[in-house]
Design goal:
By secondary structure, the chain is of the alpha/beta class. It contains three helices and eight strands, in the order E-E-E-H-E-E-H-E-H-E-E. About 25% of the residues lie in helices and about 40% in strands. The chain starts with a strand and ends with a strand. About 35% of the residues are buried.
Amino acid sequence: MRLLLQRVSRAEVRVGERVTGRIARGYLLLVGFTHEDREEQLVWMAEKVVGLRLFADAEDKMNLSLADVGGGLLVVSQFTLYGDAAKGRRPSFIGAARPEVAIPLYERFLTLLRDRGVPVESGEFGAMMDVELVNDGPVTLWLER
């Protein structure tokens, strides 16, 4: 499982003209799955994301979590996180899980995040999505498990 986390002051995802998810302060998560991912990776990642302290406290130190600031999550599936461009000029996506594997992983990950008590919005798996965000920082992390 690979995840790109961006701290945002707002973010929105649209499919065509329809908004499928929108948050104010929080994290935009671009999430990719591989065919070897299991429940343990999903649980670890959900706990990690919700527990990260990436917001500034009164002393301007990154010391506050999503819950501390009333933040939310916008989760967008992103199979291209498993793109391999080491050879040639066109990336290979052989490492990315096929939809029949990735969709249940994505849905389970959303459930695990919601179970941790933070607001969760999402994109639409497999759709052509437009993602708009305003960075807060910028703070960007790459997580893999």
